[in-house]
Design goal:
Number of strands: 27
Structural class: alpha/beta
Strand content: 5-15%
Radius of gyration: 25 Å
Number of domains: 3
Length: 731
């Protein structure tokens, strides 16, 4: 079958790993490229296959596009010569649906989909979602809770002797003992619960290719301790490894007797983190400090009788490798079996392009850095421009509008540490907090040049930037802000200050609101020069660890002062393994040294009433929230904020038909310019068609939407966010 044509050395660097496309193809390469990876025996017969070498099982619909995990991994393995089939959203009530393609010749590849299945199915209030953007016709309930575990067990039931490899965002973020918000307890590694043979975490293209070829040679995946980005269940350490015990934060830890490349760091075990929440914070702190692929050591954690051994993080892909991955022969469409069904996630990304991966922001509530790493992995200009031309020429319905050139962030393209030697020893959790590191390059010139070349392509009328913008980086490049506002903003630009108060911001690792003010000034000036009337749409998080009632009150006052109204609010949702979740569960700060006694205590809104209050403050303008806010203001001694004037936060009167229990009911009054809208649960508002502006509250299906054994979502539901709606200025 055709290979990716590029001059790639056998290793990505003189001392690095084998290059992604340097392997000798598997013998089944002779069957060529499939128009779509088969989902039925009939499709296999048409391709001349008697058996699949690898079968991928996923909780998402199969869309053959590089923003969908099963497509990237499937096409990549196909390029290695393997016959790859896909079972998408199978009925998990029995093993029958897992037998439709027969037994895979080599192994199963299992993922929950582009999102963690629990984040996908439940809101921050633990209410069941009735829709699923990754399912035909937006239908909910097509994947089980904790899908990776369920799918892996069904694969084993279907064909007991076939190895099971798990990965993707759900497996990646649950690779160690982790706090599970939905059951409100710490759960074991998903590797142990699923009984899989090996777990691959992070951007795992490099790992899955290596594992596939080694299984094809007859190796046992349970013994692949030299594969980076893997988790394995063990009963004793591999030969040649020395253990460094970091399970007790109050002990002075010994230095390793061997080089760090063969040192494994012991985390507090499963039973320990349950018994002492401070030890959970310690485990989280150590894991995140061992996240730089250049210097990270292997980790080990007891899971109640067995150890989970985590090899160091994967080596980032080079630009030629990224180009190869995104240049694979995707059909760029949903599988034909879906016919005319609407798949919302596909509709959102069909005209958008990933230009990079990774994020060095390190926001504590976000899953991107934990999954994709801090090192930015970039595509070349030529690769991006060719994809634009492919969209123009091959994707039905293209009208000249590219909806995004981005990734986890809009403006980290080609930004990196200025010195490889410094990068190799750095253990900072963020390159931009508390301030932008002096060693970080912030030149937006390559991105500006890419924008200009993309706009010049024949047939392209408009390129919008839909990914979240790091405004603290953008202020370092006035030329970029001008380019962005002049050519790539369509009325509104979303950014994420997340809060205004130092308490929660310090726990988020986000810059102060003064940086937002500087960016807004630059944005407004650029819009004025371009003769445009544009608005910023800032996101905010309710009930994040470290947030007090007073913090939320001050944020509400800031919103009112700036004439902003938050729409479709979500509270903080503790996603597995994040630093913010460690704060939520342990009420300790893992950003600082952790001790059993002493250390910084983190205030956390856990009770439903307090979480609703924090959410209500973000929607201070919703009359259904006024009784809750008034009661809180009285308890806080701030009755001075209750009254009829603009200086007051809420009025003393209540419109008829509002303020019902739980915020339910139909809003009827709209004094003082309030917009009418329908109220759903917990005060979340949904405006009628034509009222207000913009898209939904963040891109829950994300540009870098997590793939099986690969990258994570962009801005996702696990973060919890709100989108304020700027009101038009009075004439």
């Amino acid at each position: 079958m055709p290979r990716v044509k590029e001059k790639t050395p056998k290793t990505s660097s003189p001392n690095g790993p084998k290059a992604l496309f340097a392997y000798r193809p598997y013998w089944a390469q002779r069957f060529g490229v499939a128009p779509f990876l088969p989902m039925s025996r009939a499709e296999m017969d048409a391709l001349g296959w008697e058996q699949c070498d690898i079968i991928l099982v996923t909780g998402d619909a199969y869309v053959d596009h590089p923003s969908f995990g099963m497509a990237i991994i499937g096409r990549l393995l196909e390029a290695q010569g393997f016959r790859v089939g896909i079972i998408a959203q199978p009925d998990w009530s029995s093993a029958d649906a897992f037998k439709v393609l027969g037994a895979p010749n080599l192994f199963w590849g299992v993922t929950g989909g582009n999102m963690d299945s629990m984040v996908n199915r439940y809101t921050a209030d633990k209410r069941l979602r009735h829709n699923d953007s990754y399912t035909p016709n937006d239908e909910g309930g097509k994947r089980p809770d904790r899908a990776v575990t369920v799918y892996a067990q069904r694969c084993r039931e279907a064909f007991r002797d076939v190895p099971v490899v798990i990965g993707g965002i759900e497996a990646s973020l649950r690779r160690i003992a982790h706090y599970d918000y939905w059951s409100d307890k710490v759960r074991r590694s998903v590797l142990v619960d699923s009984k899989a043979d090996i777990l691959l975490y992070g951007n795992a293209e490099r790992a899955i290719v290596e594992v596939a070829h080694r299984i094809a040679r007859g190796e046992n995946p349970r013994e692949m301790f030299d594969v980076r980005g893997a988790a394995l269940a063990i009963t004793k350490l591999p030969e040649g490894w020395a253990e460094l015990d970091f399970s007790d934060p109050d002990v002075t830890h010994p230095k390793p007797d061997v080089d760090s490349a063969h040192t494994v760091v012991r985390l507090p075990g499963y039973d320990q983190v349950i018994a002492e929440p401070a030890l959970y914070a310690q485990a989280s702190r150590v894991l995140h400090q061992e996240s730089n692929a250049s210097n990270a050591r292997a980790l080990i954690q007891d899971q109640g009788g067995r150890d989970v051994f985590l090899t160091p993080p994967p080596i980032p892909l080079t630009t030629p490798e990224m180009d190869g991955v995104y240049g694979l022969p995707y059909a760029r469409a949903p599988h034909p079996s879906y016919k005319d069904a609407r798949i919302p996630a596909w509709e959102m990304i069909r005209f958008s392009i990933n230009i990079m991966r990774g994020c060095f922001g390190g926001c504590t509530f976000c899953s991107i850095t934990e999954h994709e790493g801090r090192v930015i992995q970039n595509r070349s200009e030529a690769s991006v421009l060719k994809e634009i031309e492919d969209i123009r020429d091959k994707v039905a319905g293209f009208t000249g509008q590219i909806s995004d050139l981005g990734g986890p962030t809009a403006n980290m393209y080609r930004l990196a540490c200025k010195d490889d030697k410094i990068q190799a020893v750095c253990r900072r959790l963020s390159c931009v907090y508390p301030d932008i590191c002096v060693n970080l390059g912030t030149d937006h010139g390559p991105l500006i040049e890419l924008y200009r070349k993309a706009r010049a392509i024949k047939g392209v009328k408009k390129i919008s930037i839909g990914s979240g913008l790091r405004y603290d980086l953008a202020v370092k490049s006035p030329a970029y802000v001008k380019e962005l506002v002049t050519h790539h903003v369509g009325g509104y630009l979303k950014i994420a200050p997340e809060h205004t108060e130092e308490g929660p911001l310090s726990k988020m690792m986000k810059p102060g609101i003064a940086t937002y003010d500087r960016f807004k000034q630059m944005f407004d000036q650029a819009a004025k020069q371009a003769g445009k009337e544009y608005y910023l749409i800032p996101y905010f998080i309710a009930a994040h660890p470290g947030t007090t009632d007073e913090d939320m009150m001050n944020l509400a006052l800031w919103l009112k002062k700036n004439d902003l109204r938050a729409d479709q609010v979500q509270t903080f949702l503790p996603s597995p393994m994040s630093l913010a979740s460690a704060m939520y569960y342990s009420e300790r700060n893992p950003l600082k040294p952790v001790h059993r006694v002493g250390g910084e205590v983190v205030r956390t809104a856990k009770g439903l009433n307090q979480r609703r209050l924090h959410k209500a403050f973000l929607r201070y303008h919703d009359a259904n929230n006024w009784p809750l806010i008034r009661d809180a203001l009285k308890k806080m001694g701030r009755v001075d904020l209750i009254g009829p004037s603009k200086k007051h936060l809420v009025p003393a009167w209540q419109p008829k038909g509002t303020g019902l229990v739980g915020g339910e009911g139909v809003r009827t009054g709209h004094k003082h310019g309030e917009q009418k809208f329908l109220t759903t649960h917990a005060g979340e508002g949904r405006r009628p068609k034509g009222v207000g502006v913009g898209k939904g509250p963040g891109k829950s299906v994300g540009k870098s939407a997590g793939k099986v054994l690969g990258p994570t979502m962009g801005r996702d539901k696990s973060r919890g966010n709100s989108r304020p709606t700027p009101r038009a200025p009075k004439k």
